[in-house]
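Ticket #4471: structure export looks truncated?
Reporter: QA, pipeline team
Priority: medium

Steps to reproduce: submit the single chain below to the structure queue and open the exported record.
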Amino acid sequence: MDERAEHRDLRWKEVVGGVVIGFLACWGFFGVAVFVAYVATGDSAPGWVTVLMWASLAVAPAVFLVAALVRRRRGQLVAGMLLGLTVGSIVGAGVCTTYSLLSMA
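Actual output as written to the record:
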């Protein structure tokens, strides 16, 4: 079998496993960010401080995963993790928005 054709094979277990790991890791980052923001500023933290702390915790794993994706050794697993991190961020933003809207009502 040609080496190039071997790299084109899709390994679903790696991709799905990576998505699950990335999604759970994203929610772990949310928890750490909320804890760090609360400890650093207490209840009086302005919203932008919390967002800045979360962004700093979320950007580092994304940059690491993109760098690991270039290596192509575990490309499909890393691609799944990056996808899971992205989906987790979108779902997290929806959860935060829904909570904010419900708490205003």
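Status: closed, not a bug. The export was complete when the record was re-opened. Leaving a note from the reviewer for reference: The longest helix spans residues 12-41.
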